[in-house]
Amino acid sequence: MMRRIADVALVLITGGVDLAFWYGDRELIDGGMMPLWVVPMVAAGLCAALLMRQRFPLGVWMVVWLYTGVNLVVPKYYPFAYLLVAAYTVASRAPGSTARLVLVASALPLGLFSFRTAQSSPSGAQLRDFAGAVGTWAVILLIAWGLGRLAHIREEHARAERERLAAEAERALAAQRLRLAHELHDSVTGAVAGMILYAGAARALAADADPRVREALEVIEGAGGRAMTELHSMLGLLRSSEPAGAVAARFADVEGLLESARSAGLRVRSEVVGTARPLAPEADLAAYRTVQESLTNATKYAGPGATVILGIAWREASLDLTVRSAGGSAPPAAPALSSGNGLRGLRERLDALGGELTCGPDGDGWCVHATLPASETTIEVS
């Protein structure tokens, strides 16, 4: 905002200097008179053009350069303040070759003006006056142009520094992700793999046991397999530069979560309102995690026999998810299973996306409600 105010102030000062050096002299080179309103009107137009010089530096400079030709028709009008500002802007934003060409071209009308001014001097002083005028304008133009080049160099250095810092941050982030991938592989992945192996071995040894025992072991083995798949996907993501949306878990796969919950003894049904639409990768993963965490909590706290209703409502620009659970008999050790981080992490994830998560008692059960942003393009969900 302050930069824009300074820009407008510079343009207004330029217009003021231009009009101040005009003195209101309207005499044309052929002895005629120019209408009084012409110079102020054109000056206003040039000021408006200068306000666009940051976006179109070369185009604005060309307009101003052509306008300096007015001095050939109105000898007592010196519209060179605009030219200096335009030359400064080109020098500060254009490549070196373009800036040098603009410097030479800007010197032409100033040199022509100096020559015409020297012609009106006494015959013995014409060369001296011409050299003095050319030298003065050359110094003024070089100062304006040089300040522009200095600003350009400083901006290039600042841009190079920003790119260097960004590259360093990216390298540090990549190293951190790689360390995290190693830790996950060495600890969590090994533990999950062991759980799957032990569950499979126990299921084989329990061939003659209660069918419910074998079913529970199958659920453990299946859940471990899915966890291992997601872990491998996350490890691949951490070792690459892909966005977070590359994780395999997607909301379109939510039916697999419902089947796992049913295998764990929950009575689960879903209610869908509206037409499914694609979600941004981050929102897609967040929706999947919301249902996953809600069903996990229902399994831990409500226990087998609980009724769980998943509500999926596609609104005009959002996706509403509601998971209600009631009934069932929680296992005695359920409280010890909670770390308290699941819902907290979900809330943080949704807040970052501009969504919202609320949860709390609902009658004799529990309710989790989440709202996520959704796009408007429809897709077909298999």
From TrEMBL:
Pfam families: HisKA_3. It catalyses: ATP + protein L-histidine = ADP + protein N-phospho-L-histidine. This is histidine kinase. GO terms for cellular component: membrane. PANTHER family: NITRATE/NITRITE SENSOR PROTEIN NARX-RELATED (PTHR24421), NITRATE_NITRITE SENSOR PROTEIN NARQ (PTHR24421:SF10). GO terms for molecular function: ATP binding; phosphorelay sensor kinase activity; protein dimerization activity. Keywords: ATP-binding, Coiled coil, Kinase, Membrane, Nucleotide-binding, Phosphoprotein, Transferase, Transmembrane, Transmembrane helix, Two-component regulatory system. It comes from the Bacteria. The chain crosses the membrane at residues 5-22, 34-51, 58-78, 98-118, 130-148. Residues 177-241 form the Signal transduction histidine kinase subgroup 3 dimerisation and phosphoacceptor domain. InterPro entries: HATPase_C_sf (IPR036890), Sensor_HK_TwoCompSys (IPR050482), Sig_transdc_His_kin_sub3_dim/P (IPR011712). Residues 150-177 form a coiled coil. Its EC number is 2.7.13.3.
